[in-house]
Amino acid sequence: MQAYPSWMRYDRQIAIIGRRAQIALEEAKVLVAGLGGLGSNALGQLAAMGVGQFRLVDPDVVKMSDLHREPLYGEEDVGKPKVKAAKDALKRINPSISVEIYQAPVDESNATKMVDGTDVVVDGLDEIPPRLLLDDASMKAHIPYVFASVQETYGNVSTLIPGVTPRLKYFLKVAGPNPSCCHAVYPPAVFVVASIETAEVISLLIGKTPALAGKLLVYDALTASFDIVPLTPSPPRRTRFVVRLINVQIGYKILTSGLSIPS
C-alpha cells in the first residue's frame, strides 16, 4: 500500500478550515451517545474528517431493520453490539483514530463518567430521559452538547453551550409516558440532520461559533423546509404547543419552559 502524508487525506477540507483547525480535530475527544441513525452517521463523518478520539456508548445490537438508515453497518454486523461494529467500521474509515467503547445505556450511574474528559457530547439517543441526564452532566462539566432528533420525516438540531445557551431541559419536557423511538423513520431526514449535527460539532471543535447555538432547527424532508426557532432562557411567558415538527416522538406534547417564539 502506498503511503501518503497524513495531511493529504484532509486536503479538501483544510482548504476551508485551515491546518490549525485540522490539528484541533486530531487532538479532540468526542462522546457519541447512541449509535443509531443519527449517532452512526455523525460518527462516520467525524471520523472521516479526522477527529482523533471517540468514546462510544450504546447498549444495543445491530438489527436488520437498522441498515436502511445506518450505513456504518452491514448485514455481517447483524447481532453484533453496535459499539463493537462501529469501532471496527471506524478503524476501516480512519485507522489513525482511537476509540473507547461502552455497551451500556446512559443512566444516572454513568452519565458523568461518559462526559468526563471529552470536548463535545454528540446526541444519537432515541429517548428523552438519558438526554436530560447528559444535559445535566455536560453542563456541570462545562462541555457543549449537540442535541439532535429525527422522527418520521422531521428532525431537530440545537447546540447547547454551558453558560451561554438555554439548557435542554428548558425546552424539552414531555407530558405523558416515557417515549422511546418508534418505527417510522425516513432515511433522508436522518442523513440531513446527522450532517447538520456534524457541522455543529466541527464548529465547536475548531473554535467557531456554532450556527445553532441557542436556536432550534426544525427540518421536514418531504417539503425540504427548514425553520429556526430562537431559544431564550427566561422568556416573559410560558409557551405550550403541540407540534410534531418540534417533537422528538410522534404524538407527545412538548411543554416548553424557556422557549420564546417570535410573533
Write up what this structure looks like.
This protein is α/β, with parallel strands linked by helices. The protein has one domain: Rossmann fold, CATH 3.40.50.720. The protein has 9 helices and 11 strands. The strands form 2 sheets. An 8-stranded mixed sheet has the order 3-2-1-4-5-6-8-9, sandwiched between helices. Helix 2 crosses helix 3 and helix 4 packs across helix 9. 41% of the residues are buried. The C terminus is likely disordered.
What is the CATH class name?
A: Alpha Beta
Biggest β-sheet, characterized?
Answer: 8 strands, mixed
In CATH, the homologous superfamily goes by the name NAD(P)-binding Rossmann-like Domain
Secondary-structure element order, as H and E? HHHEHEHEHEHEEHEHEEEE
Estimate the mean pLDDT confidence. 86
Q: What would the CATH topology be?
A: Rossmann fold
CATH architectural grouping = 3-Layer(aba) Sandwich
What portion of residues belong to β-strands? 15-25%
SS-based class? alpha/beta
Count helical runs: 9
Query: What is the subunit organization of this protein?
Result: single chain
Stretches with pLDDT under 50, minimum 5 residues = 235-263
Spatial ordering of strands, largest sheet? 3-2-1-4-5-6-8-9
Q: Please estimate the helix content.
A: 25-40%
Shape, per Cα inertia axes: globular
